[in-house]
């Protein structure tokens, strides 16, 4: 009997694009009436994020082509603690949800900004901004709104300084990615050359970085928003409320965990949490649930997983869960 060797290339490895195609096909097969709503939700969310993606990839490509990324990375040397504080405070003003912040995190990491300030902005930004502060106050009261704002900055500081302490473990946080393959290589960088378009090698780097990073972010954020659409449609809020009606440590921690699949952006969350509290959710559990959902939703986790190495991903989840639980417990004791 003759064995026929099977080439590995005959079975291409699944990619995120396969899942992007498979999700609408599965919805069309099992719930055809929902297909239009799922696609519309994902398209609207992605359309709202496209300006951020464009800004981020232009920034990355421009900095790479000019050689300025080294100067930006050097600007944080010896100033990391101050940068963490500023990043946590700025995160409270930036109107980004947990998915919209991903392009900017990719840009900061790509140009060598240390993980401490990046993590501070990463954790604080999805939690609060001035418009959502007003919306939260209207739905849940100023005590809850101020508590969430303070929690956002505190979580940013906690995550930033924790990551600074662990920075020796993460010398290369980004996952390796395929370059554009143009063969030109990056130009030798000394002083930044701001008029990069006058040099053929730097124009090539700009075009390559623009294409590679643009496709990368578009792919993973498309997947993230399709997952978000599924979460919103098929995960009932009422099913979660019955599990988190108490005030104890376990209940608050469970609320932080359950907040992850129940995607909560900073504008829709207050009305949902108000309804959950009317069904018996405690204030401490509600705070943990809201923070856990804003920082570590499944769509955001999918995008983060594609961006950083597994060790950084695990720390990101651990900081989000720990911070959400602590915020809930402290808020419960105060109110």
UniProtKB/TrEMBL annotation:
A GO cellular-component term linked to this record: plasma membrane
Bilayer topology: Multi-pass membrane protein
Domain of life: Bacteria
Spans through the membrane: 16-35, 41-63, 84-113, 212-234, 240-264, 285-307, 313-334
Compartments in which it is found: Cell membrane
Predominant localisation class: membrane
Keywords for this protein: Cell membrane, Membrane, Transmembrane, Transmembrane helix
Family: Belongs to the UPF0718 family.
Name used for this protein in its record: Permease
Organism listed in the record: Pontivivens ytuae
């Amino acid at each position: 009997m003759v064995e026929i060797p099977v080439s590995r290339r005959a079975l291409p490895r699944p990619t995120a694009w396969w899942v992007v195609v498979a999700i609408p096909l599965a919805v069309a097969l099992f719930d055809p009436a929902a297909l239009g709503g799922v696609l519309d939700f994902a398209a609207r969310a992605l359309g709202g994020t496209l300006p951020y993606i464009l800004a981020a990839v232009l920034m990355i490509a421009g900095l790479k082509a000019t050689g300025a990324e080294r100067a930006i990375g050097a600007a944080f040397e010896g100033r990391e603690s101050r940068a963490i504080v500023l990043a946590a405070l700025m995160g409270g003003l930036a109107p980004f949800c947990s998915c919209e912040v991903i392009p900017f995190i990719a840009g900061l990491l790509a140009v060598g900004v240390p993980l401490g300030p990046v993590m501070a902005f990463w954790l604080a930004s999805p939690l609060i901004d001035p418009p959502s502060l007003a919306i939260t106050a209207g739905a849940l009261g100023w005590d809850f709104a101020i508590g969430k704002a303070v929690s956002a900055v505190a979580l940013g500081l906690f995550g930033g300084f924790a990551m600074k302490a662990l920075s020796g473990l993460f010398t290369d946080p980004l996952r390796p990615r395929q370059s554009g393959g143009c063969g030109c290589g990056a130009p030798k960088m000394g002083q930044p050359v701001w008029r990069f378009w006058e040099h053929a090698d730097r124009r090539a780097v700009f075009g390559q970085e623009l294409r590679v990073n643009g496709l990368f972010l578009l792919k993973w954020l498309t997947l993230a928003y399709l997952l978000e659409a599924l979460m919103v449609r098929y995960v009932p809020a009422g099913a979660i409320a019955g599990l988190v009606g108490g005030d104890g440590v376990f209940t608050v921690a469970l609320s932080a965990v359950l907040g992850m699949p129940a995607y909560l952006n900073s504008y829709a969350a207050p009305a949902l949490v108000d309804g959950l509290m009317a069904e018996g959710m405690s204030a401490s559990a509600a705070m943990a649930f809201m923070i856990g959902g804003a920082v570590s939703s499944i769509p955001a986790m999918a995008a983060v997983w594609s961006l950083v190495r597994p060790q950084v991903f695990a720390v990101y989840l651990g900081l989000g869960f720990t911070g959400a639980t602590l915020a809930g417990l402290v808020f419960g004791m105060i109110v």
